[in-house]
Amino acid sequence: MAHAIGALRSEITVPFGVNVLWDAKSSMAFAVATGVSFVREIMTGTYASDMGLWNPDAGAALRYGDRLGRSDVAVLYNISAEFTHSLDRRSLADRARSAAFSSIPGAILVSGTITGEAAAMSDLEEVKKALPDTPVLANTGVTHATVADTLKIADGVIVGSPLKYDGHTWKAVDPDRAAEFMRIVRKAHKD
Q1: Any idea where the domains of the chain sit in the sequence?
Q2: What is the rounded distance in angstroms from the CA atom of residue 156 to the CA atom of residue 41?
Protein backbone atom coordinates (compact mmCIF):
# COMPACT_ATOMS: atom_id res chain seq x y z
CA MET A 1 0.00 0.00 0.00
CA ALA A 2 2.76 2.43 0.89
CA HIS A 3 4.46 1.77 -2.44
CA ALA A 4 1.25 2.40 -4.42
CA ILE A 5 0.50 5.61 -2.50
CA GLY A 6 4.12 6.75 -2.84
CA ALA A 7 4.06 6.13 -6.59
CA LEU A 8 0.89 8.21 -6.99
CA ARG A 9 1.48 10.82 -4.27
CA SER A 10 2.76 13.55 -6.61
CA GLU A 11 -0.37 13.22 -8.77
CA ILE A 12 -2.87 13.52 -5.91
CA THR A 13 -4.03 17.12 -5.61
CA VAL A 14 -6.80 16.77 -3.02
CA PRO A 15 -6.67 15.74 0.64
CA PHE A 16 -6.73 11.96 0.91
CA GLY A 17 -6.56 9.30 3.56
CA VAL A 18 -5.88 5.65 4.23
CA ASN A 19 -7.66 2.72 5.80
CA VAL A 20 -5.90 -0.55 6.53
CA LEU A 21 -8.97 -2.62 7.12
CA TRP A 22 -9.38 -3.50 10.78
CA ASP A 23 -5.91 -2.37 11.80
CA ALA A 24 -5.87 1.05 13.45
CA LYS A 25 -2.15 1.02 14.22
CA SER A 26 -1.19 0.10 10.66
CA SER A 27 -3.51 2.82 9.37
CA MET A 28 -1.60 5.34 11.48
CA ALA A 29 1.71 3.94 10.22
CA PHE A 30 0.59 4.42 6.62
CA ALA A 31 -0.60 7.93 7.45
CA VAL A 32 2.87 8.78 8.72
CA ALA A 33 4.68 7.04 5.87
CA THR A 34 2.62 8.61 3.09
CA GLY A 35 1.75 12.05 4.46
CA VAL A 36 -2.03 11.65 4.22
CA SER A 37 -4.56 14.02 5.76
CA PHE A 38 -6.81 11.48 7.46
CA VAL A 39 -7.31 7.91 8.58
CA ARG A 40 -10.69 6.18 8.30
CA GLU A 41 -10.79 3.25 10.69
CA ILE A 42 -12.60 1.27 13.34
CA MET A 43 -10.75 2.66 16.34
CA THR A 44 -12.90 1.59 19.29
CA GLY A 45 -15.16 -1.23 20.43
CA THR A 46 -15.12 -5.00 20.40
CA TYR A 47 -16.74 -6.90 17.56
CA ALA A 48 -17.60 -10.44 16.55
CA SER A 49 -16.99 -10.95 12.85
CA ASP A 50 -16.53 -13.56 10.16
CA MET A 51 -12.80 -13.14 10.73
CA GLY A 52 -12.93 -13.65 14.50
CA LEU A 53 -12.99 -11.25 17.42
CA TRP A 54 -11.85 -7.75 16.69
CA ASN A 55 -10.69 -5.42 19.44
CA PRO A 56 -9.05 -2.22 18.14
CA ASP A 57 -7.10 0.00 20.50
CA ALA A 58 -7.54 3.68 19.65
CA GLY A 59 -5.19 4.80 22.41
CA ALA A 60 -2.32 2.68 21.11
CA ALA A 61 -2.90 3.79 17.51
CA LEU A 62 -3.12 7.48 18.39
CA ARG A 63 -0.05 7.33 20.64
CA TYR A 64 1.84 5.56 17.85
CA GLY A 65 0.96 8.30 15.35
CA ASP A 66 1.92 10.94 17.89
CA ARG A 67 5.29 9.28 18.60
CA LEU A 68 5.94 9.30 14.86
CA GLY A 69 5.17 13.02 14.66
CA ARG A 70 1.69 12.93 13.11
CA SER A 71 -0.68 14.10 15.83
CA ASP A 72 -2.24 16.27 13.09
CA VAL A 73 -3.82 13.34 11.22
CA ALA A 74 -7.61 13.61 11.32
CA VAL A 75 -9.16 10.36 12.49
CA LEU A 76 -12.54 9.35 11.12
CA TYR A 77 -13.98 6.96 13.71
CA ASN A 78 -16.26 4.29 12.31
CA ILE A 79 -18.42 3.32 15.29
CA SER A 80 -20.58 0.71 13.55
CA ALA A 81 -18.29 -1.54 11.57
CA GLU A 82 -19.51 -3.43 8.53
CA PHE A 83 -19.47 -7.24 8.55
CA THR A 84 -19.52 -7.36 12.36
CA HIS A 85 -21.72 -7.33 15.39
CA SER A 86 -20.72 -5.00 18.20
CA LEU A 87 -20.40 -6.75 21.54
CA ASP A 88 -20.88 -3.38 23.24
CA ARG A 89 -24.47 -3.14 24.47
CA ARG A 90 -24.48 0.66 24.75
CA SER A 91 -26.55 2.61 22.25
CA LEU A 92 -24.86 3.82 19.09
CA ALA A 93 -25.18 7.40 20.37
CA ASP A 94 -23.43 6.48 23.63
CA ARG A 95 -20.63 4.74 21.73
CA ALA A 96 -20.27 7.84 19.53
CA ARG A 97 -20.16 10.14 22.55
CA SER A 98 -17.52 7.93 24.17
CA ALA A 99 -15.33 7.99 21.05
CA ALA A 100 -15.67 11.77 20.81
CA PHE A 101 -14.88 12.21 24.51
CA SER A 102 -11.77 10.02 24.35
CA SER A 103 -10.18 12.06 21.56
CA ILE A 104 -11.20 14.73 19.10
CA PRO A 105 -12.38 12.85 16.01
CA GLY A 106 -12.20 14.36 12.55
CA ALA A 107 -15.65 12.79 12.15
CA ILE A 108 -17.82 9.99 13.46
CA LEU A 109 -18.87 7.46 10.81
CA VAL A 110 -22.08 5.44 10.85
CA SER A 111 -22.19 2.36 8.62
CA GLY A 112 -24.66 -0.15 7.37
CA THR A 113 -24.31 -3.86 8.02
CA ILE A 114 -22.18 -4.58 4.93
CA THR A 115 -20.44 -2.62 2.18
CA GLY A 116 -23.00 -0.87 0.02
CA GLU A 117 -25.80 -1.19 2.59
CA ALA A 118 -27.07 2.07 4.02
CA ALA A 119 -26.91 2.99 7.66
CA ALA A 120 -30.35 3.37 9.16
CA MET A 121 -31.46 6.99 9.03
CA SER A 122 -32.55 6.61 12.66
CA ASP A 123 -28.94 5.68 13.57
CA LEU A 124 -27.61 8.77 11.80
CA GLU A 125 -30.21 10.93 13.55
CA GLU A 126 -29.40 9.41 16.95
CA VAL A 127 -25.67 9.99 16.58
CA LYS A 128 -26.04 13.52 15.16
CA LYS A 129 -28.38 14.46 18.00
CA ALA A 130 -25.84 13.16 20.53
CA LEU A 131 -22.95 15.01 18.83
CA PRO A 132 -24.38 18.17 17.23
CA ASP A 133 -20.96 19.87 17.03
CA THR A 134 -19.04 16.88 15.63
CA PRO A 135 -19.10 15.99 11.94
CA VAL A 136 -21.16 12.82 11.45
CA LEU A 137 -20.85 11.01 8.11
CA ALA A 138 -22.87 8.22 6.53
CA ASN A 139 -20.16 5.67 5.80
CA THR A 140 -21.90 3.15 3.55
CA GLY A 141 -24.82 2.63 1.20
CA VAL A 142 -25.55 6.19 0.14
CA THR A 143 -26.84 6.21 -3.44
CA HIS A 144 -27.89 8.74 -6.03
CA ALA A 145 -31.47 8.27 -4.85
CA THR A 146 -30.72 8.74 -1.13
CA VAL A 147 -27.89 11.27 -0.92
CA ALA A 148 -30.10 14.37 -0.72
CA ASP A 149 -32.13 12.94 2.17
CA THR A 150 -29.01 11.63 3.90
CA LEU A 151 -27.41 15.08 3.78
CA LYS A 152 -30.40 16.52 5.63
CA ILE A 153 -29.08 14.61 8.67
CA ALA A 154 -25.43 13.77 8.08
CA ASP A 155 -22.69 16.32 7.53
CA GLY A 156 -21.29 14.28 4.67
CA VAL A 157 -21.06 10.86 3.09
CA ILE A 158 -18.41 8.34 2.16
CA VAL A 159 -19.40 6.70 -1.07
CA GLY A 160 -17.89 4.07 -3.34
CA SER A 161 -20.11 1.47 -4.98
CA PRO A 162 -22.70 3.87 -6.47
CA LEU A 163 -19.92 5.65 -8.35
CA LYS A 164 -18.68 2.46 -9.99
CA TYR A 165 -19.79 1.04 -13.34
CA ASP A 166 -23.20 -0.58 -12.85
CA GLY A 167 -22.99 0.42 -9.16
CA HIS A 168 -20.85 -2.67 -8.54
CA THR A 169 -18.28 -2.49 -5.71
CA TRP A 170 -15.50 -4.31 -7.56
CA LYS A 171 -15.70 -2.34 -10.83
CA ALA A 172 -13.86 0.85 -11.74
CA VAL A 173 -15.25 4.33 -11.10
CA ASP A 174 -17.66 5.48 -13.80
CA PRO A 175 -16.96 9.20 -14.42
CA ASP A 176 -20.55 9.80 -15.55
CA ARG A 177 -22.02 8.21 -12.40
CA ALA A 178 -19.60 10.19 -10.23
CA ALA A 179 -20.46 13.47 -11.99
CA GLU A 180 -24.20 12.81 -11.61
CA PHE A 181 -23.76 12.01 -7.91
CA MET A 182 -21.92 15.28 -7.35
CA ARG A 183 -24.59 17.19 -9.30
CA ILE A 184 -27.19 15.83 -6.86
CA VAL A 185 -24.98 16.71 -3.86
CA ARG A 186 -24.48 20.29 -5.09
CA LYS A 187 -28.23 20.69 -5.64
CA ALA A 188 -28.93 19.31 -2.15
CA HIS A 189 -26.55 21.88 -0.64
CA LYS A 190 -28.31 24.71 -2.47
CA ASP A 191 -31.80 23.60 -1.37
Answers
A1: 15-142
A2: 16
